[in-house]
Amino acid sequence: MNGNNSAISLDEHVSNGNGIAAKSSKPMRQNSTYSDWEVEKNKNKQFHEDFTINNFFWRTHTITCLVVLCGTLIYVTGFEEPSANTEFNTKRGILAVLLVFLFYGVIYTPDGPFVRPHPAFWRFVLCLSVAYELGLIFILFQNVHDARKLLRYFDPELGRPLPEKDYGGNCLIYDPANATDPFHNVWDKLDGFVTVHFFGWWLKTLILRDYWLCCVLSFMFEILEYTLEHQLPNFSECWWDHWIMDFLLCNGLGIVMGMKTCNYLSLKPYYWTSMWNIPGYKGKLKRFVLQFTPYRWTDFDWTPTKSFRRWVIMLMVIAMFLLAEVNTFYLKYVLWVPPPHFLCLGRLVFFLFMGATAMREVFQYLDDPKANKFGRQSWVISAIIITETLISVKFDPATVTKPLPRHVIIIWSVGFSLLSAWTVWNFFLKRFFYSLAVAKETASPKTKVN
């Protein structure tokens, strides 16, 4: 690909059964999910591929991988001194089981919808998500004390009660009582999570690729914080922290920058050529860097009101997305994991990779008439979100089941009633009355003639 046609991407490809990328002009349908629909969706965009496949780079190397695996096991068996440390052996054994599972999965799992930087990377994400779900199920069958102790295998400092920071309290933007720094309340709220919010929503927008969906999710999460602040002190924030710092500035600017990035990636031309056809080391290095950019970019026109099925699925997507966000706070509260810990940050980054594939699969499931099967990554991430919720409910039912305040129940009841009423009107009554009007207009000329 030339230097003027680069872009950051997580996007689509066509592959055959051996994981080899095929020419987009003659796509080979691996299944009804990742091929013809993609080409048809992007037929009006500037895309050209002059690509000579490097077989070594794209082959799965099944025999080579088997030899490497067996050689490693032979070395561990015959040349390593056994350790008398039970804890060390347990940790290393669990890690070895996980690595072998991921090793096999990356080799034999079918390709997903993304090809950059390599299909094997997205197969790795899928297999790691399966392993994460298995770990969650194991934790679900423990009690809360054993689950907290289990996390000490990752960090001995874990498993201790954590103080929760209350973001509410004095909500004066300008505090005249503090002559030294009257804006101290504002500065106190400006922590590292402001940057995390901004870049987090930038990346989420690249995943969702739609203004209205991102804004609805951002707005609804602030409403959820109001709803659940009686359960988690961390949700108790000042009004300006909710709506100015979070919703408008951090989330809003992140969404705007994300959509501008999406528009750029959608409009730019894509021209790909093989690294080995590019002269000079500088050009080859540039092409190597471009391997981490999009192969092509597919816009997500969700159009939720297009049909009742589409509307219901979009409501489910919004609900699952918000549930995943809320799980972040409940899990760290229940399992005593501090917010800056690498487990919390690693989970957020991992969800971005899983979510990118899952949202791509969900959109095609909605948009492609031939897609009659829910995507693999979508299935796994749904199971993960539900399992995380069950862990929070099981380990701290006293917190999760605290009754909602009366005014919160009233507001949510009114909201659900309006949503249900609009759904019935738009998808059933409106069409019923329209069909009656059409039938009446059709029958009226016949009445006059008679």
UniProtKB/TrEMBL annotation:
DNA-binding keyword on record: no
GO biological process: phosphatidylserine biosynthetic process
Enzyme Commission number: 2.7.8.29
UniProt superkingdom: Eukaryota
MF term (GO), any: L-serine-phosphatidylethanolamine phosphatidyltransferase activity
InterPro entries: PSS
Keywords: Endoplasmic reticulum, Lipid biosynthesis, Lipid metabolism, Membrane, Phospholipid biosynthesis, Phospholipid metabolism, Transferase, Transmembrane, Transmembrane helix
Protein's membrane topology: Multi-pass membrane protein
Listed pathway(s): Phospholipid metabolism; phosphatidylserine biosynthesis; Lipid metabolism
Cellular localization per UniProt: Endoplasmic reticulum membrane
Parts of the chain that traverse the membrane: 56-78, 90-108, 120-141, 211-228, 240-259, 311-333, 339-358, 379-395, 407-428
Pfam families, sorted: PSS
Chief place where the protein resides: endoplasmic reticulum
PANTHER family reported for this sequence: PHOSPHATIDYLINOSITOL SYNTHASE, PHOSPHATIDYLSERINE SYNTHASE 2
Identification of the protein by name: Phosphatidylserine synthase
